[in-house]
Amino acid sequence: MNDTIVAISTAMGVGAISIVRLSGKDAIELVNKSFKGKDLTRVSSHTINYGHITDKDEIIDEVLVSVMKSPKTFTTEDVVEINCHGGIFSTNKVLETMLNNGARLAEPGEFTKRAFLNGRIDLSQSEAVMDIIDSKSEEARKLALSQLNGSVSNMIKTFREKLKQLLSSIEVNIDYPEYYDIEVVTKEKIKEEITYMKKELESVIEESKNSNIIKEGIKTVIIGRPNVGKSSILNKLLAKNKAIVTDIAGTTRDIVEGEIYLDGVLLNIIDTAGIRETEDVVEKLGVEKSLSMIDDADLVIVVLNSNEQLTKEDKEILEKTKDKQRIVVLNKNDLEKKIDMSNYNIKNSIETNTNSLEGINSLKEKIKELFNLETLTSKDYTYLTNARQISLAKKSLESLLEAEEGIKNNLPIDMVEIDLKNCFDTLGEIIGETYSEEIIDNLFEKFCVGK
């Protein structure tokens, strides 16, 4: 943390500009060694300065240099950003010059890591930085921005403050039982507090399932036997001919993918090979792949022919998908209806006709309804946003449940206090109040260099 780091902070390739960023106590001085223009050590903070980067007597590039002095910077250290022309060679040459001047090449995510270690942002906000970069939709961007602005941090800090007050009251009662002017914390009162916090934490964990939908989208698999109209439904949803459609059974032998947005949430749609028994080796592999994708799907769209009786394959598909989030599409409703669904308890079904757009809008509305997309995207974005955070929240909940069980079993209050402290510490890991160097290193190594 005592050295000065440097990296290219823009995507490599040909572009209008590139940015070479430095951070550290010697950042300004190191750039000034090769800057032909104003003396950067004397300029005001948060200014942009015109000049040239040179290597000895050779001009490398015409640049604009942004100087931002500690502590009002992203890393809280001195930060300098060299805005140069976007050619690969010129950008690398500027980087090479800064390395020759004494800077060290930054590790992945090291600028953000320094911001965290210097107290500029907490751990959940650090993760939000990468989420903004990786966001796949407008709603994902809003979710990440909300977390960067401290929504998760504030929620966790508020929760920990309640725990701290409870723990303090318990400590006072244990250490100073002789004082009459302190509030007596009975086991009944502790139980009430734990019950309230348990419900609150359970709600946070449950609602945070929505964050994965917002961030990653809804993985949707269209499944059914051959020639029921799966590929046609995919094409109608995407409003383009992504999949080949013919009257020949088994045309789709591998998965075909596409993406649409519903209320700002990404829908990853996968059309699969038709499910049937076949001796064709390639088609057989496609069928096996289709069946395996059901398990990983967030939503399964089962397509059936409404003008035919249920076949053996149809029944097998309905059985295999009964426990999944599912919409059953009765396709070809322009023909005489022969299908009998009376023996199946289908909660969500629609009728379509892929010769027209009939039923496609109904299918979209049914998806919105199943995943509460309209309310999901209009709510406050205070969600735990990744597996690490949710796992720690669940671990904290387990400690609360153990404390609750201890109260029920009339355990000594100092035993219950241990579980409450575990809950407090584990919640602290979410925002980085408590952490190990190994966890921090693993988290930031997933970042891109220069961020």
Largest sheet: 7 strands, mixed
| N-C termini distance | 16 Å
- CATH architecture tag of the largest domain: 3-Layer(aba) Sandwich
Oligomer: single chain
Uncertain runs: 178-183, 243-254
- Classified by CATH, the class of the largest domain is Alpha Beta
Description of the molecule:
It is a single chain. With 451 residues, the chain is an alpha/beta fold. The chain folds into 3 domains: 5-120, Gyrase A, domain 2 (2-Layer Sandwich); 130-208 and 384-432, tRNA modification GTPase MnmE domain 2 (Four Helix Bundle (Hemerythrin (Met), subunit A)); 216-371, 3-Layer(aba) Sandwich (Rossmann fold). The protein is built from 16 helices and 13 strands. The protein has helices at residues 27-32, 88-100, 110-117, 123-134, 138-148, 151-175, 187-207, 209-216, 230-238, 281-296, 312-320, 360-370, 373-376, 387-408, 413-431, 437-444, and strands spanning 5-8, 17-23, 35-37, 47-55, 58-68, 79-85, 104-105, 218-223, 256-262, 265-271, 299-305, 326-331, 349-351. Strands 3-4-5-6-2-1-7 form a 7-stranded mixed beta sheet. Strands 9-10-8-11-12-13 form a 6-stranded mixed beta sheet, with helices on both faces. β9 (256-262) and β10 form a beta hairpin. It is flat and about 85 Å long. Mean pLDDT is 83; it is low at 178-183 and 243-254.
